[in-house]
Design a protein that fits this description.
The complex is a heterodimer. Chain A is 49% helix and 18% strand. By secondary structure, chain A is of the alpha+beta class. The relative contact order of chain B is 0.18. The chains are: A alpha+beta, B mainly beta.
Chain lengths: 390, 244
Amino acid sequence: MLSIKLAYKNLIGAGLRTWLNVFVLSLAFVIIIWHKGMLDGWDHQAKSDMIAWECGGGQYWNDKYDPNDLFTLEESHGILPQTLKELETKKEATSILISQGSIYPEGRMQSVLLKGIDPDQQILDIPSTKLKTAGSEIQVLIGEYMAKTNRLKKGDVFSMRWRTSNGAFDAADAVVAGIFKTNVPTVDAAQLWLPIETLRQMLDMPDESTILVTRQISENHPEAKGWKFQNLSILLSDVDKMIQAKSISGSILWLILMMLAMLAIFDTQVLSIFRRQKEIGTCIALGMTKGQVIRLFTIEGAMHSIFAMIVALLWGTPLLYLQAVKGITMPGDKNTYGITIADVLYPSYSLGLVASTCIIVFITTAIVSYLPSRKIAGMNPTEAIRGKIK
Amino acid sequence: MKALIILLILTPFLAFSQYPDGKDLLAKIDRNMSSTSRVFTSKMIIHGRRSSRTIESKTWSQGDKKAFTEYLSPAREKGNKMLKLEEQLWIYSPSTDRTISISGHMLRQSVMGSDMSYEDMMEDPKLLNHYNAKVIAEETIDGRPCWVLRLDAFDPSMAYQLRKIWVDKQHYIPLKEELYASGGKLLKKTTLSDIRNIQGRWFPMKIVFKDMLKEGEGTEFIIEEIRFDENIPEYIFSKASLKK
């Protein structure tokens, strides 16, 4: 307790030197928490969006389906087994049929994925009810990015070409029934959503599906021959990998900030020990052991981090709170990134994040403070009192 | 009066009976256009929206099952090779020293942004084996009288389920062709010209392919030299020849 009181008085007594160190350390604190909060917020938003727009509560894939290999689309479709059909009847799941095709807006050819979806489905956020519009042309729904890249707007008519299940070419005119806004590029870029029954007729694949998306809260995932269930941890693994990669690159920033702060602490400690030799010698002469003096200096150094936490709390809290409420607008055309990211990112700060950052910074500061203090162990008290450096 | 009515009823049938049999006509076209094998050098001019590209190549083909093409120019494409065996196609690029394989419907994709598909470029199918043919009219193209032949595929896997061919009455060679989607939409138009007699058969040395859904002037396919019924060594149609 005496050491803590002494350390506190010494730090306050050092004045500006202490506060400069404390400010630099508080800067590191706030930036580390902000950066981690950004990644956590992005992770949370991206996963929520993907669940709402694409993944649902998990998906059944036709055994031959591989979303990373377009060549598999030719063969990866089939009639759902009875167990899965029942899920669809109970509105616990919705079928999606996927095929390749080409569209010709203004005479330009663009390869697209044709995705058939039930207009009455309520599993995904895709506004499929817009596909119910009557008309002689095929009604299609596209995302904002797809509309922008192909210069399409609602009501535009364009030619569409596809191949039937036999491989024969077929073509017809399609009309944009609606344009939706989403943060999930995998349901937007180069994709055309149309009524599943229309697509089944076009491809000559009656009752067939490529994937079956289950309801978000559903935990009913029966086994089905020829179909494999993909749970959310599989479907969202790309987001996890991306956040992990970003965390690694973010840790470089973390490392630089910490090094700067720790360098300041280390430097202060070395200077303190050099300038306060007489004080160290006196303390030992008065009966303190070398270990107690080392502890005093280590506590002094480590106390910087406690002060930094308080200072960071004072100026960082309103700043981080403001960002958590207002969010951070992503610059440029975020759709070109090809990853799920919202227009406005809201950082997410958890108690665990703040506590873990505090503990890490405190321990690191304590270690950095201890290292130069070890020099005290080698001091001769009488020499120290005379101010002679060994 | 009765005789007049009968004559009026029969007139279309009488006119129709003057048309040659579609199958015979198709057999004559196949005799000109198809061969057991052929070796040719060609120039493909792809007219884009802003500029045109020319690609020269040499092709060896045997029926509609085996074909091998090597690009000769431009420098960027030189050395690229394609091998087609049955329904499988391998493309080799010397710059990456890699061979990629495509199959099935992908063979019906456009070659290098042109209006031709891999099938169009490398295959030599006998139409008689895939289509029912019927002569439906007579027309004149560039001053040459033609039969208009309608082909309906009996093979559901044919890329184009309906074709219309304008056949030169004298040389039994198509001068124009229209390719339709199953639903009846016109997808592609080809115009054949520069008809020459080569090894006793009439053959078009210039074909213009036009994807009717796409803007642009289409793709010209000019045959510079062609030899029919050549004895092609079997090693040409092997994967080993891709890297040679």
